[in-house]
Amino acid sequence: MSWNTIIFDLDGTLLNSLEDIRDSANYTMRKMGFSEKDREEIKGAVGNGVRHLLTSCIPQEQKADEEILEQALQIFRQYYFLHSQDKTFPYEGACGHLERLDERGLKMAVISNKPDEAAQKVVRHFFGDHITYISGEKDGVRRKPAPDLIKEALHFFGSDAVCAVYVGDSEVDVLTARNAGIPVILVSWGFRSREALEALEPDYLVDNFDELTTLILEQM
């Protein structure tokens, strides 16, 4: 059956948000009196949600302290919400190709392990109304790689899984799609190397938005 519903990951797929995430994580570490992390350390931890990111940043001897983690989460969320657009930008071609897909009548959603309030803010800022449904990490819904966010999006659109595809850039995205029972397209411009993505054996792997849009439109 053809695709009519496209569900996108956000960070590393539509937006290059690494610098704002790194700045927010390191601001949090400074406020907590801990050492900052370099770009590659942050890059490797992005994709599994803020709790995972901050746990990876907190010193080993403090990782088991839930009170410290909760304090770090509060600092990060407040700071990141205010600074989520300072250095973040859409990947080349993202805006134009989303507009093109929208014009073809495709249903499009973004699901993210980014805090929901931040996900709503940045998607609307950069992509306007081309993305109809947006959902980030929130209470009561399991974050990726659980299939919950995909299932919520499909329910919102009244779409069947056989008509949907998921687009992402990491191992988390492959697991999420597999758990939801839909095919996955990985993009090579995000936060993981092409070699690492090939090892994940996605259904499709593309290197630019031209390839992505062509693939999607061929499957309509």
List the total number of helices. 10
Distance between the termini: 9 Å
One letter per element, helices H and strands E, the order comes to: EEHHHHEHEHEHEHEHEH
What's the count of strands?
Answer: 8
How helical, in percent, are the residues?
A: 40-55%
Tell me what portion of residues adopts beta-strand conformation.
15-25%
Classify the fold: give the CATH topology of the largest domain: Rossmann fold
CATH architecture of the largest domain: 3-Layer(aba) Sandwich
What is the alpha-carbon Rg in Å? 17 Å
Mean pLDDT over all positions: 95
Supply the number of structural domains.
Answer: 2
- Globally, the shape reads globular
Low-confidence stretches: none
Fourth-level CATH superfamily of the largest domain: HAD superfamily/HAD-like
Alpha-beta classification? alpha/beta
Q: What is the class of the largest domain in the CATH system? A: Alpha Beta
Largest sheet: 6 strands, parallel
Strand order of the largest sheet: 5-4-1-6-7-8
